[in-house]
Amino acid sequence: MSKAVLELRNVNKSFGPIDVLHDISLKVRAGEVLCLLGDNGAGKSTLIKTLAGVHKPTSGQMLMDGEPVTFERPRDAADRGIATVHQFGGTFPLMSVGRSFFVGMEPTKGIGPFKVFDRDKANAVAVRAVQEFGITRITDGDRLIGGLSGGERQSLAIARALHFGARVLILDEPTAALGVKQASHVLRVVMEARKRGIAVIFITHQVTHAMAVGDHFAVLIRGALAAEFARGEKSREEITDLMAGGEALANLGADVEAYMASHAGHPPPPQH
Amino acid sequence: MSSDINPASSGISGALTGLFRRPEVGAFMGMVLVFAFFSYFGADRNFLTPFGTSSWVNAASTIGIIAIPIGFLMIAGELDISIGAVVPAAKMTMAIVCGFYGQSIFVGLLATFAIAGMIGWINGTIVVRTKVPSLIVTLATLFSVSGLTLFLSLMLTDTTSQALTSPDWAKALFGSYHFWGFQSSVFWWLGLSAVLYYVLHLSPWGNWIFALGGDKESARNAGIPIDRLKIGLFMLASMAAALSGVCETVLSNSATTTTNFALIFNTIIAVVVGGVLLTGGFGTVAGVFFGTATLAIVQQGIGYTPFDRNLSSLIIGVMLLIAVLMNDSFRIMATNWSSKKK
């Protein structure tokens, strides 16, 4: 096994008296997809933000290529090749494909102080980068981001991250807001990224999507790692049950029906 | 693979796409429409003569110098209404330093732009640090600056208006009538438009401004110094207001402390009629340029027609509403338009 690109060792994070992450140890290797599963409020967002340098761990270590690293700000993480793509792609709806692709790193032409944004080059590079991921519908770099589908935006954001040298790609619920077909586009892009040797951390609560691309799985419950397993070790039902905090979701339907039958059609009160 | 790349849109669908992506086309058509209207009703009353033309172009220039930087701020998702007080503050500074204390024009300009820059810096810094909406922050500075201008003018000179006599070179540069009766500020307006066109549409900074207004967090993550950029835009707006004030003062040889509330609305109308989205993230320099011209044609042109002067505000009100609705539907169309429907 190759060395882990990014590793967390016993990372804790608390905001004041509230413990959000508890003793998290994780590894992700090059060319591997680590799926981070968890229900809402399980601490997924905090974990991502810690990886991306937004938060600093309260205790514990982060290592890249085996060396300890600390990120003071998101820029530090970005400089080390950690890129985060958020649910809506983090793109600008009213900017063109070419312009948004190069935000912050605009290619220029011209001399001296009269540098001009190189639109043709930006458009060509952006379109080529996204087409290499199989999104062939984007052919015009002048098209506005807002005119792309959700899946195309995600794919563009991922292509952008990889174009600028990301080694670790953190995908925050990339398929959550997408339809079945769009989601499969994004999953294909994830597989392409893995093939290129990128370490991917894929955050989701959709087990089907996780199982389609994941090599390793980690389930997060109330800020702690509840389970860690490799591809094929657990079934879909087992994973779903784990995410729900160990309660068997399979029995939920039967329980609710029984309750409703005996309570004049009212659903049961939620249990904690 | 690369053969699929379609560098320039082609054919009718391409032309249509291009049109939808260009809000200045709408602003330009609005201007042509308004110009045709006033030409028709004002032709026999000198609207089309050099005198008639310069009257609206001159009015446009004093608004336009400020409107483009305000447009930049709106694209970046902010607003600045303190310019209504910065203009009289700049005028009084100029008149007091040069007229009252008899300093050279150069010293006056230095003091004026330093003060304006500082007001912009304060606006920007408060907005960036506190996250208070810029409308409220600049409302506060509008009143603070206007109060301070009045107080300091009375304290230093014991009067609220001040005369200023400028040397010939300063007159020619900032405030005299050139051919056809065009004021010097017209040339500043044209020059500033050209420079700011370069900044917004050609230079990499323009991309930063669009990104800032489109999605602040993503812009920050992409490594854009968003706080510095925002403060810079507020300073640009204040200093543009100062330039407009300097031109007016040198032209009229006098300054008063009166806060220019109408100017605040005029700049916002010009920007919105020019196709800049109220929600930020989109707009063009050419659009704001045409929007300013449209506004000035209506405000000045009404005097050359048989219609009642007061109707100009009605026309502007209706025009503004149409523009806002058009901008919004433009935004929806632009974001849903795909050049190849499959």
TrEMBL record, chain A:
Pfam families: ABC_tran. CDD domains: ABC_Carb_Monos_I. GO terms for molecular function: ATP binding; ATP hydrolysis activity. Keywords: ATP-binding, Nucleotide-binding. It comes from the Bacteria. Residues 6-247 form the ABC transporter domain. The keyword Nucleotide-binding applies. Gene3D superfamilies: P-loop containing nucleotide triphosphate hydrolases. SUPFAM superfamilies: P-loop containing nucleoside triphosphate hydrolases (SSF52540). SMART domains: AAA. The keyword ATP-binding applies. This is Sugar ABC transporter ATP-binding protein.
UniProtKB/TrEMBL annotation, chain B:
It comes from the Bacteria. This is Xylose transport system permease protein XylH. It holds the Pfam family BPD_transp_2. It is found in: Cell membrane. Its main location: membrane. It is a multi-pass membrane protein. The keyword Transmembrane helix applies. One of its GO terms (cellular component) is plasma membrane. Part of the binding-protein-dependent transport system for D-xylose. Probably responsible for the translocation of the substrate across the membrane. It comes from Donghicola mangrovi. GO terms for molecular function: transmembrane transporter activity.
